[in-house]
Amino acid sequence: xxxxxxxxxxxxxxxxxxxxxxxxxxxxQPMPDVGPAPSAVGPTEALATTEPSPRKPPGPPPDPFGAxxxxxxxxxxxxxxxxxxxxxxxxxxxPDSRSLPLGSIRVGGSIxxxxxxxxxGLGKCSKxxxxxxxxVCTKRRGLQRATTNMNASWxxxxxxxxxxxxxxxxxxxxxxxxxxxxxxxxxADFKWKTGNRKTKRLRGWxxxxxxxxxxxxxxxxxxxxxEFAHDADLRNPWGKSQSVYFKRVPKDVMIAYTRAxxxxxxxxxxxxNMTVVPAAGLKRFKRSKFQGLKLTxxxxxxxxxxxxxxxxxxxxxxxxxxxxxxxxxxxxxxxLTGEEIKVKKNKQRLRYLETREPGIYVLSxxxxxxxxxxxxxPWEVKRAKETKWIRVRVVQGLLTLYEGDKPTFSTLMSPGKxxxxxxxxxxxxxxxxxxxxxxxxxxxxxxxxxxxPWTMYFKRPYAIHGAYWHEDFGMKKSGGCVNLSPIDAKxxxxxxxxxxxxxxxxxxxxxxxxxxxxxxxx
Length: 522
Prior knowledge:
The protein is mainly beta. Helix content is 4%, strand content 34%.
């Protein structure tokens, strides 16, 4: 499927759908409690005579959207801050709205000013605020997109959509059919229906998008934000009152949310688009823990990756290879020696690859093998100052990071179905902390995937990005994009150029030093 690109209004993307540029920005596990230290004893006393304190299993990581959320604004702006009111809060290299954007501020996000006051501007903006590396329009003809008033009701309420640190900026959920509301109505005034939670597995282009959707109800993780109470008057960014009903979230649409709370007899969540949604109409996505492999001098290519399902281990007995009874787990890596043995069995020609586990082999058809590229470093990289490049192998479902001719990272990725991922030689065009993907112009109402994290466009609408809705990495799943686990996507995002300055929601490659080279091949 091909998508239309609306220049200046919508940035399209893909995961089966395309994407408007709606740029927005795991906590570490606590150390286990191992009990008190033993008291000091003399050299002749036997420590073994005392029972060691039992280890307590580590508890769950703290909820990033529970106690202490939203975080306070950083105290690093003596001249104030400028915040994004809506999409298109651009950071520009000159105080001229016609100049090429360097990046943007997410809705509700803010960055420090580098000097007090405003400077005169050109184009549609008569006033700009100066920030590190550029300028942000603060007085514009038409709809205002940014403000220096951090006490504006919309900006204060938008603190409840602040992304969390770590690979998952938000919690994510799939709709079974639910209303999006601008505030919590009284129980007597609630008149909207939610869909049936007992749904069939998705099919067609969306097959697999519900793999991580959980049946368990979403539980509250804190009190209701006062800005969304039934008697609150949260006006839109331009001061106009809002009706309670915003729009319906159709079945199978994905949303991002932060706080879950109880009010008026049911649980609601705060959606990242500044609305509240009844949790009864949502199925929360389980977070994938899959992550790729940082390569070291001791652990280098070739490496095999196990896709789709567990695969048997083999050992050699004479001229035959027989299963050991053990298996390689799905989505695990298998270090290889590079040696292979060809065997003819039942008119089939089989290849067994020697692993670095002594005496153990794996059938070549059971693994995707990541090898150093035979053709070497692409000429585009050899001629450039930057030595970093990304290799995407569509058929094998692999993504490898290189620095010159040295591979530094290997992982599984999911390319597009039916040959949808375009082969070719590209550079990263822009990077977005999160972006909402849809085929619709303007406010999506039929189908969208909210706040896809760590998105890196290399040929619009195609991107490398995190996929929070499945973990079948290595298999063809998308509408053409390169799906990574959120953990891997964050790593690649922070490794690749251009670097995104702190607080920005997106960064454009061309005016910010250029993007990392991307090679997409079979």
